[in-house]
Amino acid sequence: MRQLTPLDAQFLHAESATTTAHVAGVAILDPACASTGVVTREALVGLLRRRLHLVPALSMRLADVPLGLDHPYWTEDRAFDVADHVHETVLPMPGDEAQLAEAVAAIHERRLDRGRPLWEMHLIHGLTGGRTALYAKVHHCAVDGVSGAETLTALLDLTPEPRAVEPPQEHPPTVAPGLAGMLAGAVTRSAAHPARVLRSLGRTVADLDVVPVIATLPGARTVAAAARRLSGDGRDLPPAPSLSAPRTPFNGPISARRRFSYGSIPLADVRWVARSSGISVNDVVMTLCASALRSWLLDRGALPDRPLIAAVPVAVRRASAREVVGNQLSAMITPMPTDVACPLERLRIAGETMRAAKRRFARSPATWPSELSSMVPAAVTALATSVVLRLASMAAPPVNLLVSNVPGPQFPLYLCGARVLAYYPMSVLTDASGGVNITCFSYDGSLDFGIVSCPDRLEDAWRLMGHIQEAMDELLTLTEQATGTAPPSAGRVGRAGPRPAAAAPVPVPVPA
Length: 512
Fold this sequence. Notes:
Keywords: Acyltransferase, Glycerol metabolism, Lipid biosynthesis, Lipid metabolism, Transferase. This is Diacylglycerol O-acyltransferase. This protein has about 500 residues and is of the alpha+beta class. About 35% of the residues lie in helices and about 20% in strands. It contains twelve helices and 15 strands. It has helices spanning about 5-15, 40-50, 95-110, 145-155, 180-205, 220-230, 265-275, 280-300, 345-365, 370-375, 380-395, 460-485; strands at about 1-5, 20-30, 60-65, 75, 85-90, 120-125, 130-140, 260-265, 310-315, 330-335, 400-405, 415, 420-425, 435-445, 445-455. The strands form three sheets. A six-stranded mixed β-sheet has the order 5-6-7-2-13-12, sandwiched between helices. A hairpin with a 6-residue loop joins strand 6 (about 120-125) and strand 7. The radius of gyration is 23 Å and the shape is globular. It starts with a strand and ends in a 29-residue tail after the last helix.
């Protein structure tokens, strides 16, 4: 049997009338190379039925413990029909990028049905150029960003011709315990909870200087340093930066509405800037996000005089995502140099900041997300998580936003014979983490960005995507001037695929 971990349960119970907790993505497909020239719902359902056994998370549903006395269990649902989870729609003419983003945002707003396996797929036809989009979402309690992307690859092929897949092997089903077993487990874990809290507290003390909000309390750094000295771990860690998050227009309670924008940047250009500057690709990504947020805030006269604070999820998986259900992640909390006016200085500081954060994480991996979740009794988690998140948003924000960079394959993939041109990831908004989330995914020579926002906090998500692309153009120009060499994309046509109007200096209007 498999039970949700305390961290998985936090994602489950974070949901409320204004918060959905699924990770998702939009794949843009070119069906020209498919044998039929189209991607149909019937073909997708057939593919899922043949490969469902490769992705355990897609056949699991939740089994709740009575009265919420313990965390729910996963139970295998062998009777469910994948066809009930696959939907199809057609965009109205002309089928442009703004219409796709609006349709996807509307789907992303809706919570998954907890009485069934926690996933959905939506085929969206009618895109310009004969393209099709596939929006897929899975609940965050079942997968994290990296395992979600890996889950999708089980359905993909290296050629338009689908590969042969071994049929499923017989195995005992994963089932939840009966009522008596659930209650017995709840009693046992409740009795052991005080000891578990003490162990988690002992492991968390050394991370106090990187935990949002707690890190800003008087004495937090001193206590964390003393704990590391006593344990003998991480005694030469780089000093933790200030993690006091300023308030911005996109911080505060969110509504149930969502906006979505997306766009792509040539990965070769990003690598060229990184190599020329002596930093990593992820450092350039953080710089682009910092530059875009700075421009957006300057446009509104709302730029804080100190850095924004971002939570950067970090995968800590030891096994393939297909072998596990749930989350295996931590987070680095890091400043973003939004307060730095010079683009090259912003790039340098972003590189230094991220290197220090990575060194700390490598020498003393932050386990505080899991440890803090373990300290809260299951019944309290179920009742209080969403309330605590909303209260946190009304006080000083713990962080300003989440920024995530998920690595992907650098070769073309195919779904039902159609080539995947791009994959734009989407993630979660909460009251505490802010009304905007920026996630990017590297795929087939491109860096694909997906921005999810709450329009009550950040209405013009397309403009923010435009600022990211403008920031990349700025870095390319400055790097070319500094090195005397042209960027890889100079004079070349980019790879085939959607180039959203967000690349223009004006936002694409998305109807309210």
